[in-house]
Amino acid sequence: TKRIAWLASPRLAETNPYFSKIYSGISETLNDAGYTLLLLSNEDLDDEAFFHQMIREKEVDGVLLIDKVGENMLLDIKHMIPVVGVDFNYSDHAISTVDYDREEAAYKAVEHLISKGHRQIGFIGGRIDIEMTKEKRFKGFKKAMNEFSLPVKEKWIINSNWCLEQSYKATKNL
Questions:
Q1: pLDDT digit string (tens) for 76-115?
Q2: What are the two backbone dihedrals, phi and then psi, of residue 128, each rounded to the nearest 5 degrees?
Q3: Does the predicted TM-score (pTM) go above 0.70?
Q4: What is each CA distance from 99 to 44, 60, 72, 152, in whole angstroms?
Q5: Beta-strand pair 83-86/62-65
Q6: 3-state SS class at 124
Q7: What is the Cα 54 distance to its own chain's centre?
C-alpha cells in the first residue's frame, strides 16, 4: 500500500512547533520514496476492530509511534507490523527509536551562548509528570552552567510544562 501510519494527536502535527517539523520532514521523506503518511490517534487504537482490520488488510506498512500507547497495545502492534518509536516515549522499549540526547543538546546550546559572550542564561522548559531537576535538558543546562562557572539563578528557571503560551508569558515577566 505504501502507507505509513503516524500515531499521534492530530494537534501535535498541526500546532506543536517541535512535532510539526518532525511531521513535515517525515512526510516529505516518505513522499519522495512514494509513501504517504496516514494520521492515526489513540482514539483510533481504542477501536481495536478498526485497527486490526487496517493491519490485516495491509492498509499500512508500518507505524511511527509518537504518542505514548499502553504496553499491551505496543506488544500487539509489534507482533503485527513494523514499528518505530519517535522521541522519548519509546527510548526504553525494545523497538527501533528515533531520538536525540537531550542532556547533551542543552549543554551544547548553553556552550554556544557562552561562546557568543552571553553570561546571563536561563532555562525554559519542564515536564508535567516529573520534577524539573530530573528533566534531561535541565540537567544539561545546569552541567554547562556549572562547568563554565556561571550562576544558575532560580528566577531565570521557568517550568512551563513545555507550553508555548506559558513560556511566552513567563519570559515577558522576567
A1: 888 888 999 887 666 666 788 887 888 999 999 999 999 9
A2: -70, -40
A3: no
A4: 25, 23, 22, 27
A5: parallel
A6: strand
A7: 26
For residue 170, how far is the Cα from the chain centroid?
A: 22
Look at residues 169, 109, 159, 102 and name the one whose alpha carbon lies nearest to residue 136.
102
Give the integer Cα–Cα distance in Å for 51 and 134: 36
Place of cell 527501533: 96
Of 1, 20, 22, whose CA–CA distance to 11 is shortest?
Answer: 20
Provide the b/e sequence for 114-128 (b: ≥16 CB within 10 Å). Answer: beeeeeebbbbbbbe
Single-letter residue type at 133: T
Cα angle 149-150-156, degrees, rounded to a multiple of 5: 155
Three-state SS at 73: helix
Q: Is residue 91 classed as helix, strand or coil in its secondary structure?
A: coil
160 and 126 in contact (C-beta within 8 Å)?
yes
